[in-house]
Amino acid sequence: MSIQKKNLAWEELLLSDREKQILKDYLAFLSEGKTERESWKILEQSAANAGFNPLSETKTFLTGQKVRLGVRNKAGILAIAGKRPLQEGFRLVAAHIDAPRLDLKPHPLYEDEGLAYLKTHYYGGIKKYQWTALPLAIHGVVVLADGQKREIVIGEDDDDPIFTINDLLPHLAKDQYDKKLREAIPGEGLNLLLGHIPAQREGDERVKSAILDILKEKYGMEEEDFVSSEFEIVPAGKARWAGIDKSFIAGYGQDDRICSFAAWKAIEEIESPEWTTVVLFADKEEIGSDSNTGMKARYLENFIAELLALQTGTYNGLMVRRSMANSKALSADVTAGFDPNFAEVMDKRNAAFLGRGVVICKYTGARGKAESNDANPEFLAEVRRIFNENKISWQTAELGKVDQGGGGTIAQFMAVYGMEVLDCGVGILSMHAPWEISSTADFVMLMRGYRSFLSSQ
């Protein structure tokens, strides 16, 4: 029997009542948290309800004390003080809450031959053809000229209209069929169909004018306000069970909200850990972790510095660096699940299989391990021991065949501090598609795995 087949998650999956409820809560999280702002808002409110207090209001950091920090409403960190001094290190699970999507351009609204559209710029790695002829919703915020911020969601309620991006009918698609798949739908062709009722007044672009009237009436928006907006185009509709046996979860953004939610539920159960326990939710992973909400920003380092100052009464840069270097982390991200329909791109001996539990990846990156963290075997052995002792079904994997492509995670940006880091998530089918598929068994094992790591001695 292959080592990859030794641990079947289903055989260890006697669900507690709490875990059954968490699965339902995860579906709601996917349905309601379709942007990084929405995801963090849900997580932060849940953390507040569980006793995680704002860092700005915290005066001490003693064993069992719970602290939270939001990062510009799009990322955040949670921590529970451990029994050991923070300078000895901490245990960290770090995930990301952004997902591939379509963003609006700064000047998106236009009219052409009586049809109004919004121009988009895709975010992250998508297959453009997957986003046509699909029910879509608009989620986001706009800051008006007077400074008011409006949160807008259109396309999720039953009475809401949905949006779509047109595709070419097959009757006239001769030239389209001859193009490479990546070229069949150009990026500049991802224009969101918005409306076509003209304004009841004279002038040019009467449909565009009517759209602006609606935006003004409902949201107080002028056309120029698009410049200070952050609107994301995402699939409309709720996450659902999939499969006749409800063994799968189908929903948008499971890369990487499945790891984010599992990490939250893992830390929610912990009270007085041996080591300070930290869970981080990052933004901008899908575009390289840049910006002041991405993992390249130093909010983790600054957060630890603040906690150390609370414990010791002073700031000491050397102590901060020692704490970071003494720490151990799981980079909580998904990997490609083995799909028999596309077996030719996978090394079957080193692939992630759905229903076989948590996936650990020694390295990610592309081809020759470019832009990856390459975990040390000593740390791999420690994580393996923790999972075995806690009866966590686990497997190892790479992201497909060596020369087929590849992808990265935030692991490398934690490793620069000297901490031990290992990629750890689950396999996903149809990754980066508008609807992704995960295994219910793998989700539960992931949550248990993160909890056992964060609680380890």
Automatic annotation (TrEMBL):
Its cofactor is Zn(2+). Belongs to the peptidase M18 family. Keywords: Aminopeptidase, Hydrolase, Metal-binding, Metalloprotease, Protease, Zinc. Gene3D superfamilies: Aminopeptidase i, Domain 2 (2.30.250.10), Zn peptidases (3.40.630.10). It is an enzyme of class 3 (hydrolase). GO terms for biological process: proteolysis. Coiled coil: none annotated. This is M18 family aminopeptidase. GO terms for molecular function: aminopeptidase activity; metallopeptidase activity; zinc ion binding. GO terms for cellular component: cytoplasm. InterPro entries: Peptidase_M18 (IPR001948), Peptidase_M18_dom2 (IPR023358). Its EC number is 3.4.11.-. The lineage of its organism: Bacteria, Bacillati, Bacillota, Clostridia, Eubacteriales. NCBIfam families: PRK02256.1. Pfam families: Peptidase_M18. It comes from the Bacteria.
